[in-house]
Amino acid sequence: MARDISAVMRSETEINLRKKLQLVWMLSVPTILAQISMIAMQYIDAAMVGSMGATASASIGLVSSTTWLFGGVCSAASYGFSVQIAHAVGAGDTDTSKRVFRQGLISIIVFALVMMSIGLAISGSLPVWLRADESIRTGATAYFRIYALFVPVRQILLYCGASLQASGNTKVPGALDVLMCVLDVVFNAFFIFSTGTFTIGGIKIPGLGLGVKGAALGTGCAELVSGGLMAYFACIRQQHTAIMKDGLFRFSEITQEKALKISIPMAVEQIALCGAQVITTGIVAPLGTVAVAAHSFAITVEALCYEPGYGLQAAATTLVGQAIGAGKKGLAKSFGWITTFFGIAIMTGTGIIMYFICPYIFSFLTPDIAVQELGIRVLRIELFAEPLFAASIVATGALRGVGDTLVPSIMNLVSMWGVRIVLSIILTPTLGLAGVWIAMCTELIIRGIIFLIRLKVRIK
């Protein structure tokens, strides 16, 4: 696939709309399917934890915004190099794409070790900083500490997956994401529950009964297997990133400077976005265990609506990036708008469907009626923002393809902190958790509008 896409970018002077749609379809569908499968597994994962009660769900939900922060920063580090790989592949420069990948691999491993150390250092204090109830602090600390230990594995998984996608290969990352989700359920069942909790054909399935800690270990082990396979395909099998040939391990200051220019604004963006989510969790935590659990479950349920958008985001980055690398700015513009409108259409549809089926999903995730009712109520508020949420997600990917990360980062910073946090602080004392989600809905609408404007201005 990579060879076909990059060849089309360079050889054809004019690509008709049908061909453009085919390329978008080729790149986005495997990733979208992988995202949907991951969502399904997340639901099963959440249901496993939810079966242990609201306290267990709240323990994990409390630190979830911080785990997103770590994941977002690690993803930003990966994009600093993967965007350069997309440009090199679009230009037909395989030697450069290999060199960038190798230098990036060393850089992100060092970075991941630093992030792991930070995570371990703050794990004990984090629940206190978030003003959590005493009943969930021990579980939250244990979960986050184990999460931190697996950060290097997660970083390699993210980087190798992003590099494969930048090369035009979405099938392998998509398949391995599906595998990771299946393994997550299997490992979680083993680590979370005690022997005999599940039976197949009368045979008791063994288990360690580790509870909340088991959920973190299960996810980490699933990432370890999938990350190892992702690294194998990126480092050995993929033409544009193979590190076992040609010996191109030369360090390039220019590559590092470009990576920093792309990654630092993205890291700031993730800190702004996820940092605001951490503050939001701090606003929600005093509302009680039911509110924290409902907030966490509602975010999980909403993922079915927005994860397909992230699949299209990856396709937009690859297509726009390769078009820029091939010197075709007009084609880059077309791909930017096609993927964005495709994302808006898909997420509008998923939002409408979710409005009606969310009660059934909440009943699957948790037996707690109070959590179900509150989660349904707040989620339905936010679903009205899905079309413009899609615009912001996919447009971000298109802007990354041209290396535009600084201004979008500033836009996210202003939107999250100037709108969502301010409104949450104002509305929560009188409206409770609903106030947080009204603020979220308002902010997502504003963010979508300004990202559409930025896309129009930046990709001409």
Q: What attributes characterize this protein structure?
A:
16 helices; two-stranded antiparallel ribbon; 460 residues
Give the C-alpha Rg.
21 Å
- Strands in their spatial order, largest beta sheet: 1-2
The proportion of residues forming helix, as a percent range, comes to over 70%
Q: What is the string of SSEs from the N terminus onward?
A: HHHHHHHHEEHHHHHHHH
Mean pLDDT: 86
Computed structural class: mainly alpha
Q: Summarize the biggest pleated sheet.
A: 2 strands, antiparallel
Q: Which band does the percent of strand residues land in? A: under 5%
Low-confidence stretches: none
Oligomer: single chain
Count every beta strand, where a strand is a DSSP E run of 2 or more residues: 2
- From the spread of the alpha carbons, the general shape counts as globular
Distance between the termini: 27 Å
- The total count of helices amounts to 16
Care to describe what's here?
The chain is mostly helical and 460 residues long. It has 16 helices and two strands. It has helices at 2-11, 17-50, 54-90, 94-122, 126-129, 134-149, 151-166, 171-192, 212-237, 253-284, 289-325, 329-365, 369-382, 386-401, 406-431, 433-458, and strands at 199-200, 203-204. It has a two-stranded antiparallel sheet with strand order 1-2. A hairpin with a 2-residue loop joins strand 1 and strand 2. Helix 3 (54-90) packs parallel to helix 11 (289-325).
